[in-house]
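So, can you check?
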Amino acid sequence: MKNSAIFLVLFTTVFLLVLTILGFTKIGFSWGGVLTVIGQLLVVLMVYKVLLDHYTTNKTFEDFYEDFPIGRE
Protein backbone atom coordinates (compact mmCIF):
# COMPACT_ATOMS: atom_id res chain seq x y z
CA MET A 1 0.00 0.00 0.00
CA LYS A 2 1.07 3.55 -0.49
CA ASN A 3 2.03 5.72 2.43
CA SER A 4 -1.34 7.50 2.31
CA ALA A 5 -3.25 4.27 2.92
CA ILE A 6 -0.89 3.12 5.67
CA PHE A 7 -1.06 6.52 7.35
CA LEU A 8 -4.87 6.44 7.28
CA VAL A 9 -4.95 2.93 8.76
CA LEU A 10 -2.60 3.94 11.59
CA PHE A 11 -4.44 7.21 12.24
CA THR A 12 -7.84 5.49 12.36
CA THR A 13 -6.53 2.79 14.68
CA VAL A 14 -5.01 5.30 17.09
CA PHE A 15 -8.12 7.49 16.94
CA LEU A 16 -10.40 4.56 17.83
CA LEU A 17 -8.09 3.40 20.62
CA VAL A 18 -8.08 6.89 22.12
CA LEU A 19 -11.87 7.02 21.76
CA THR A 20 -12.15 3.72 23.62
CA ILE A 21 -9.94 5.01 26.42
CA LEU A 22 -11.97 8.23 26.58
CA GLY A 23 -15.07 6.09 27.08
CA PHE A 24 -13.77 5.17 30.53
CA THR A 25 -13.32 8.80 31.53
CA LYS A 26 -15.97 11.36 32.32
CA ILE A 27 -16.18 12.75 28.80
CA GLY A 28 -19.53 14.28 27.92
CA PHE A 29 -22.09 12.11 26.15
CA SER A 30 -22.38 14.55 23.25
CA TRP A 31 -18.59 14.61 22.72
CA GLY A 32 -18.49 10.83 22.83
CA GLY A 33 -21.25 10.63 20.23
CA VAL A 34 -19.56 13.10 17.90
CA LEU A 35 -16.20 11.33 18.19
CA THR A 36 -17.88 7.96 17.59
CA VAL A 37 -19.49 9.22 14.38
CA ILE A 38 -16.14 10.63 13.26
CA GLY A 39 -14.56 7.25 14.02
CA GLN A 40 -17.16 5.44 11.95
CA LEU A 41 -16.58 7.80 9.03
CA LEU A 42 -12.83 7.23 9.35
CA VAL A 43 -13.35 3.46 9.17
CA VAL A 44 -15.44 3.81 6.01
CA LEU A 45 -12.83 6.12 4.46
CA MET A 46 -10.04 3.74 5.47
CA VAL A 47 -11.73 0.74 3.86
CA TYR A 48 -12.41 2.76 0.70
CA LYS A 49 -8.78 3.92 0.44
CA VAL A 50 -7.33 0.44 1.09
CA LEU A 51 -9.61 -1.26 -1.45
CA LEU A 52 -8.88 1.30 -4.17
CA ASP A 53 -5.14 1.44 -3.50
CA HIS A 54 -3.09 0.37 -6.53
CA TYR A 55 -0.94 -2.14 -4.69
CA THR A 56 0.78 -4.80 -6.76
CA THR A 57 3.09 -7.61 -5.80
CA ASN A 58 4.96 -10.37 -7.54
CA LYS A 59 4.16 -12.89 -4.78
CA THR A 60 1.94 -15.89 -5.45
CA PHE A 61 0.25 -18.45 -3.25
CA GLU A 62 3.25 -20.69 -3.82
CA ASP A 63 5.35 -18.25 -1.79
CA PHE A 64 3.13 -18.79 1.28
CA TYR A 65 4.56 -16.80 4.19
CA GLU A 66 7.97 -15.20 3.83
CA ASP A 67 8.98 -15.95 7.41
CA PHE A 68 7.89 -19.60 7.24
CA PRO A 69 8.82 -21.11 3.87
CA ILE A 70 7.25 -24.46 3.11
CA GLY A 71 9.13 -26.88 0.91
CA ARG A 72 11.87 -24.43 -0.07
CA GLU A 73 14.43 -25.17 2.59
